[in-house]
Write a structure and sequence with these properties.
By secondary structure, the chain is an alpha+beta fold. The protein has three helices and eight strands, in the order ββαββββββαα. Strands 5-4-3-6-7-1-2-8 form an eight-stranded mixed β-sheet, with helices on one face. It starts with a strand and ends with a helix.
């Protein structure tokens, strides 16, 4: 049974991506679910895939449901469409759009096909993660637990010695006094 490995890039920053492995007989619904899990998104919004080409143009739609919008061609449904049936090219690409209000875009690219499946992996599965994923509803990543950890590790709390506000009036007075002292030293020499 063929195992497909896809790289899912966050559309706004291609240094952020997740690699997922999925069997060719599994559905786009399963791919949709593993992408959401890999990026730590919930499963509460509309979603669709578009078959794409090397120029990332949107082609045939593979949708979570039939939505109330105009379609040129009726969409395929994720739950009924096996991934293998939509692979038309060894470098097949798809565009994945999640939450039509926020319009989260992901570029999905087939990066390898393997004939051997691993008994250690429960497909579909994320097999590689690169970069901090965007937060679905607000701040996340470095500005959450990791920032707290850094503050504790490096003692970065506000008001800690070494931290001040640039341009404090006291600093300017001190600077003026030291310049006058230096000038006086230059006069003596």
């Amino acid at each position: 049974m063929a195992v497909l490995k896809f790289r899912i890039y966050f559309e706004e920053d291609d240094s952020i991506y997740r690699d997922v492995a999925i069997k060719h007989t599994q559905t786009f619904l399963q791919l949709h679910q593993v992408i959401l899990k890999a990026y730590e998104f919930d499963n509460k919004h509309q979603a669709t895939f578009y078959r794409s080409n090397d120029n990332w143009q949107r082609g045939r739609e593979i949708s979570l449901a039939v939505y109330d919008k105009a379609y040129k061609v009726a969409p395929l449904l994720m739950e009924n469409t096996a991934i293998g049936t939509e692979i038309k090219d060894p470098n097949q690409k798809f565009i994945y759009v999640y939450d039509f209000v926020k319009n989260w875009g992901f570029l999905v690219e087939l990066i390898s096909v393997s004939k051997e499946e691993s008994s250690k992996i429960d497909y579909p599965a994320m097999v590689k993660s690169e970069g901090i994923a965007p937060s679905q509803y607000g701040t996340k990543g470095i500005a959450g637990d990791k920032l707290t950890e850094m503050e504790e590790k490096y003692d970065l709390k506000a008001g800690t010695e070494g931290f001040g506000t640039e341009g404090d009036s006291d600093d300017e007075e001190d600077l003026g006094e030291s310049e006058e002292a230096e000038e006086g030293q230059d006069d003596e020499a």
